[in-house]
Structure formats: C-alpha cells, structure tokens
Fold each of these.
Amino acid sequence: VIRLFALGSGSRGNAFALDTPDGTLLLDAGLSAREWLRRAEAAGLDTTRLAGIAVTHEHGDHATGAVRLARRFGVPLAATEGTLRALGPGTAGLTTVPLRGSSVTEVGPFSVACCRLLHDAAEPAALVAATGDVRVGLAYDFGRPTTGLRWLLRDLDAVILEANYDEVLLRTSGYPPSVQHRIAGSGGHLSNRAAAELLGELLHDHLRLVVLAHLSQQCNAPEVARAAVEPHLRRLGFRGTVAVAVQDTPLPPLPLMPRPAHLQAELGLPDRA
Ligand SMILES: [Zn+2]
Ligand SMILES: [Zn+2]
C-alpha cells in the first residue's frame, strides 16, 4: 500500500512523507525532530522504513528537523546545492544528495526531480518524487506558476500544492499594504484561486489526490480553501480526493493505489539515465 502522510502544514512547519513498499521518503521536515517523531507516531508512520529526506528549501518551516532526523535515522538528505549550503555545517558527516533542476536524482529507492522557484531563500525548489508505482509532486512558497513548474508537475498521481490565502481575507486582514503586496507578489504565496487554476491545468486521468497546503492562519481556513478548489476541479471532471493539510494535527494517512501496470512506463522521467 502506498500512503501519503501530511503531518502538518503552514507557516509554522511543513512535513509530509511518501510511504511506499520500497521505503519512506520525507518531503520537508519543518518541525523539530521531537515534534516530528511525536506526530509520525500519532499518524502511524513506521519510522524504521525511512529511506531519505528531501527538502524544498532551508527555511525553518520546511527544514527545522531535517538534519537531525537524517542523522538519527542514518538516511540521505536531498536538496538543491544552495539549500544544502544554507543548511550549514550541521550537514557535515551526513550523506547529502544534491538535486539539480536539469536531472533526476536517485534518493534511496526514489527518483527525485526539482524545479527552481522564486522565493527569498538560497535555492528554493518544487519537488517530484517517483517510484515505479507512483509520482507525487510538492510545490509551495511561490507566487506564480512558471512553465518549468507546470512541466515538473505534469502526469502526477498526487500533488501537494500551496493554497495560501483567500484574496478577500488578505485584503481585510489588517496587514499593511506593503505586506499584502509581498504576499500576493510573484515571490510571495499562491492564492486559493491561483491554486485552483493551476490544478485545473494539471488535471489528467491518473491524478487521484490533491492536498492543499501551507494555508495562512490569518488569511485562509480549510473550508475556504476547499470551497475555492474542489467545486472547480469537480466541474472539470476530477473524481479523486481533495484533502486540506492543517498546521497542528496530522491528517489520517492518504492511500494511493499504484498505477495500473500498462501506465507505469509513463512514470519514467525523461532524462533518467
Ligand atoms: Zn520559505
Ligand atoms: Zn514556507
């Protein structure tokens, strides 16, 4: 059984995990190692099968526990070179795996590809992790989808996508205009409406799970994000699951069926050696 875990998501910490028969890959570990362990246990994630940790960028809400968990479980830590450098001397002695935008990198049993995002971090990236059975994408902390991001996120079985703010709630948030502009700008965050539009573009027959993530606590709410996205996707024919990750509690594990064998050839990322 393949399962996606959403242990927490928001400006105070993002932590996901893709659990497959071949092993488990953490996608961001933006909780303290201790809190991560507590939530993994609460959610029923078997930590003895960890095969690697991939992080999108060095900000605390994405990477706080990454180095410590990689050391504790003796697994490789994968990120762009800029992110690995920004994580600092703490990574000394760890197995680090640099991710490059132009190629697919093996992280344990997973193939990981990335795409650079515009955000105020060293070398932030969106990620796609694939095994023979499933292909999962993760993108947040960006304001505008690019052609490169759309290409990275094509043909997914599951996507974790930022739905940061509702436009009306942002305008009435009481944030100063300069802050509102930064949030809504190209290096800011993705609105619910922009997330719905991008998901509409990414839809295809095998996309079965959408997880809305990194919701603002001030300018969004789970039911608001869902209302902006789910009816739009249903109208376009989406019959899968829409889940909304929240900050403080793990979601129940989200099951993902492996792709039918006749479709698995499509999983190969194009430049895989
Ligand atoms: Zn960030
Ligand atoms: Zn963030």
Amino acid sequence: MIRVVEPQAEPGLASGLADVLVDCVEGGASVSFMAPLSHARARVFWEGVIDSARRGERLLLVAEDEAGVMGTVQVVLDLPENQPHRGDVAKLLVHRRARGRGVGLALMRAAEDAARAAGRTLLVLDTASIEAARIYTRLGWERLGVIPNFALLPFGGYCATTFFYKALA
Ligand SMILES: CC(C)(COP(=O)(O)OP(=O)(O)OC[C@H]1O[C@@H](n2cnc3c(N)ncnc32)[C@H](O)[C@@H]1OP(=O)(O)O)[C@@H](O)C(=O)NCCC(=O)NCCS
C-alpha cells in the first residue's frame, strides 16, 4: 500500500524509513550518504524529513507491507517564490527485499498524482541509478543529459547523474 504521510506523529516511521535507506546505501546506491551509514544517523535524517513534510515543505510517500516500510519517495515543494508550479522529486528508495515487484514504479505514479493534487505542473529530478532511470522513462519523463563525476558512490568512486523532467498534464 502506498500513502502520503499525514502531518501527525507516527511512532516508528523514521526507523522504518532508516531501514530502507541503510539497505540502499549498503547495496551501493548513490543517495547522498557514504557507507557505512548507521541506523541512528539515518533515523535522524528521516526525522528531519518527516518534520519538513509536517511543515508542508515536501510530500513524503511511503510504500508498506506487513513487514513494514518497503519503499519511499519525496516531492520537495519548498522552492523559490518564482517556481510555485514546480516540484523536485527526491530519494526514490526501495528496500532490496521488495525490488522488482513494481513498488518503485507505483511510488513514482503516486508521487506524480500527489504533486498534481498539490497544484504542481512540472517535476524535476536527477538520478545515478540505471534502474530508476528506466522507471522514469517508462512514465514518460524527458531525459535531459548526464553530468559525469557528479557524486561519490557509498564505497568510493565517482558516478554520473542524469537529469529528467516531466510536465504534468
Ligand atoms: C530504483 C529502485 C527504486 C527501483 O525500485 P523497484 O521497486 O525495484 O522498481 P520496479 O519494481 O518498479 O522496477 C524494477 C524492475 O522490475 C520490473 N518489475 C516490476 N514489476 C515486476 C513484476 N511483478 N515481476 C517481475 N518484474 C517486475 C520492472 O519492469 C523493472 O524492470 P526493468 O528495470 O528491467 O525495466 C530501486 O532499485 C532502488 O531503491 N535502488 C537504490 C536506490 C536508488 O538508487 N534510487 C534512485 C534514486 S533517484
């Protein structure tokens, strides 16, 4: 099940999201953090994200099953005043236990719907993940180009990032 996190306290949510982030970093994903990423540090990161979502600065979506959080994505809404129609998609993450079942695609569809409902008509993102890029292409995102050596991989070495945008109908 995929849902947008509501602005109320949810005990355990930051911890469940931290499980997903730690798993992605251990799996070698370039998602802002270097390895090793402790669960405590990841939880602090997510507590900040949840607070930001409560302030209305971003939409936070989570995908859950009976074992807990299996994936997440965000749409950042807190942009300069001359870009009120735009959102930045960030941190599409699916735990390795739940990959290859359409969770990532469903999260992105839900993120687009939530952004549209929030009045946004243009979304932008960048990704170092070939798997994620296939999802964006499948959903009709326009691929802009690649910046080499954009970030570090969690265990070292540079990776490129590819920028995409999508105009929401
Ligand atoms: C990128 C990422 C989010 C994709 O998540 P996912 O849930 O595995 O994505 P999906 O299941 O929707 O799609 C993955 C593949 O599974 C396939 N798939 C989807 N449902 C399926 C099913 N029921 N049976 C078999 N295959 C299926 C999709 O067709 C897709 O295949 P393709 O890549 O060959 O086209 C995940 O790999 C991840 O978290 N990576 C690490 C973090 C990262 O780098 N994120 C990107 C940040 S921008």
